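Task: complex structure prediction.
Instruction: return structure tokens for all chains below.
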Amino acid sequence: MSNIITVTELSKQFKQITAVNQLSFSIEQGDVYGFLGQNGAGKSTTIRMLLSLIKPTTGNIEIFGLNLQSHRKKILQQVGSVIEKPDVYSYLSALQNLQLFAKLSGMQLTKKTLMQQLERVGLAQRANDTVKIFSQGMKQRLGIAIALVHNPTLIILDEPTNGLDPQGIADIRNLILHLSKEDKKTILVSSHLLTEIEQIASKVLIIDKGKKVIEGAASDLFDPSQTIVELSTIDNDAAWNWLLQSEWSKYLLKKSKASLSLKLNKIHIPQLNAALVKAELGVITIYPKNSLENYFLQVTSENQHVETFSN
Amino acid sequence: MWKLFQIELYKIFKRRRTYIAFIAIAALIAVVQLGLKVDGKEYAAFVMADLSNTLQISGNIINGYFVCYVILQLLLVHVPLLIALIAADMISGESNMGTLRLLLTKPISRTEFLLAKFFASTVYTVSLLVWMAILALFVSMWLFGTDDMFLLKNNYAVQIENADIFWRYIGAFCFAALAMTTVASLGFFLSQFSENSIGPIVATMSIIIICTILSTMSIPIFNIIKPYLFTTHMVAWKEFFDLKVNDANITIKGSIQHPEKIIQSATILLVHIVALITATIYFFNKKDILS
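Output:
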């Protein structure tokens, strides 16, 4: 597949601070590319450089095979984006905002088409309300409608679930999956919420302190056979001893005062729970910790860099 | 570019804040008109007190043309504040709302974006002056009637015939539009450096106040810079109401005593506008959008 984005040795220096440091990565057509990093890792700076809001100190960005600096206008015609908070004109209605940004993107759309776009993000009923009375979630959905109004090939979403309630987060996730699977869009989505990226991304890049830590297929990072399970019972010592004697002993990792840890395939969690209940060990909580979360915390707290793995 | 310009105009005139200036001008003009309608004769007697022994003046002195001149003298000092309210908000307001980053991810160049915004703020400035002209000139002509205009200058008096006045007002308002566009350019230039509107508005007004003081103070050290200050030239609209006189010391109809002063002032104001807009484009194109 052809590369939609190719970033080569990209760096950005703000006075004494290196926000992005020699970052290289590429995104193929049809990818949902998860861009992960803690707050301040350099995700937003990188995304702003991809959208030509920030000028790189060094490095090169190619989008659709064209150099961003010399073909900015042509490239941006095919890009839709939401950058952090989706701020729009609060004194205009949702429909007026959408119409205005459609025009700026070079589209002269009918009211019917614009209403269809609002329908897509669940705002058709509020089309004529001024945005100043909108909730954060509604603004976020309007921001996404604006990003999609000119039917872009590439969609860049910087923390699109920020400030949303669980239903709003689920809606955005479903929309991203729909855009990827049904509309065959290429999507770059940044987040510090690992669970969100896990559910949508086909590829993942983790950055820390402006540098690439790891890049690869999400299926390799989100390996369900390596799930860490945290368990707490009424008597953790008794539970630990029972587990040591059982067939589950090979999965045991460690015991602390508050909980026990096991590493096993996610699909075996119900069986583990049933066994503990049968042994009358008084299970209080049992939950899987995302494998990526463990990995992410490990790699971003250490200071290691650039370890690329293949599918 | 045309589409961008239309969008900018749409945004300006969709905001309630835009109309504050129009309401403020209407209120100020109404106050002056009311005052002169009620106490115009007393005002005229006070103004002409020194000349009453040497001149015999008859007719309607407090006529529409005279009232408009009084309003222009009073208001053109304050209009820059109203211009700054919009012009200094043009970029910083977008930055403050968070819409700047969204706008600049659209397929438009930053230069096009700035020029569209500047031309839209110029249309706002001109609209404000057209509104002022309608109220100060046409409404005053309707309320006070028309006659010859009698003006007192520093050490002489000028009488302009009724039929020779209207075109001078057209010239004066056009010149005022140029002067106010210079103010808009200054506000626009300062607007790019801030992420809220208050800073650029206050900075614009501060610069105008300081430059006005420097322009009006008769201290030799400041005389060197006076000719280069835009505030020195903003008042050149008054030149339209200074006439040449013949050997008999009678004003020559259709003449302007110092047309070269108007041309020179207009040129200097234009140079300011071009310099400020060029500087805005230069700095803004280099700017990282972090808002």
